[in-house]
Amino acid sequence: MSQKIHANEQSEIQNEQSGDYNPFEFPELVKDADEPLILGPAGETFDFIQTGKTTDGKYLFAKLVVPPHVGPPPHVHHWIDEWFYAPNGGFSIFVGKNRYPDLEKAPGKGAPKDTLQIVQMRPKELFYVERNIVHGFANVTDKPQELYLVWTPDTPDVSFLPYFLNAGTIRDPDNPDQIPDFMSKIRLVSMASTYGKNQSDSFWQFVEKIEEIDHIPNMVDNREKLLELMSDTNKCQ
């Protein structure tokens, strides 16, 4: 891949998720992952574009197609940070107010439940959620929507890729109406802790209350960090 990505072409200062809408132009990256398409428990399709195998462990990048009115229940990553990017909008993202640093003390089970702030994602909007924070998302429209997810790091000891491969179902290219395997929903929860994740099995399991707001105060999208990761990896390929 020959494209070189410059952070200063995107923004000279770190963008805040605020009333000042600052769309993000996601870099065009060539797919170099050879992983199969995965059908997730909610019927979402994961297309892995780049993995730690080719990014020197810096990140894992997937493009999702998410069916209408679905998304993963609230969960917490303890080993990785995550970006969310909605090219066309259409999603609600929910982010907790508290931190949960202990994998053995999930919200509502050894730790207090959380308050989730729910925000509508606008087209080309980028969100960044650090590890140890409850979060999730849902397609709130009546048609499938595309969502980009980036997890960092993606080294063998913390990679999230095996979780998707083991919990999900390989997409059958000859079956466009394929539905998720029943066990996918079970494995989504039962395998989570192996990969440094607390995964709820329903929305309210980790949640005490919600706040529907226009933007999350003081939340930065860390676009410079994302662009730096991708530039460091791709300028040498």
What are its keywords?
Jelly Rolls, 4-stranded mixed beta sheet, single chain, 7-stranded antiparallel beta sheet, 237 residues, globular, mainly beta, disordered N terminus, 3 helices
Write a structural description.
By secondary structure, this protein is mainly beta. The chain has one domain (7-12, 27-234): Jelly Rolls (Sandwich), CATH 2.60.120.10. It contains three helices and 15 strands. The protein has a seven-stranded antiparallel sheet with strand order 10-5-12-3-2-1-13, covered by helices on one side. The protein has a four-stranded mixed sheet with strand order 11-6-9-15, with no helix packed on it. The protein is globular and about 40 Å long. The N and C termini lie close together (5 Å).
Give a quick rundown of the structure.
The protein has about 240 residues and is mainly beta.
Calculate the terminal CA-CA distance, rounded to whole Å: 5 Å
Beta-strand residue fraction: 25-35%
CATH architecture: Sandwich
What overall geometry do the principal axes of the alpha carbons give?
globular
What CATH first level would be assigned? Mainly Beta
> CATH homologous superfamily, by name?
Jelly Rolls
* Count of DSSP H/I helices: 3
Q: What value does the Rg take, in angstroms? A: 17 Å
Structural class: mainly beta
Total domain units: 1
CATH fold type: Jelly Rolls
What spatial order of strands do you see in the largest sheet?
A: 10-5-12-3-2-1-13
Helix fraction by DSSP (H/I, runs of at least 4): 10-25%
**Tally of strands:** 15
N-to-C SSE string, H for helix and E for strand: EEEEEEEEEEEEHEHEEH
Poorly predicted runs: 1-18
Largest sheet, strands/sense/barrel: 7 strands, antiparallel
**What is the arithmetic mean of pLDDT?**
91
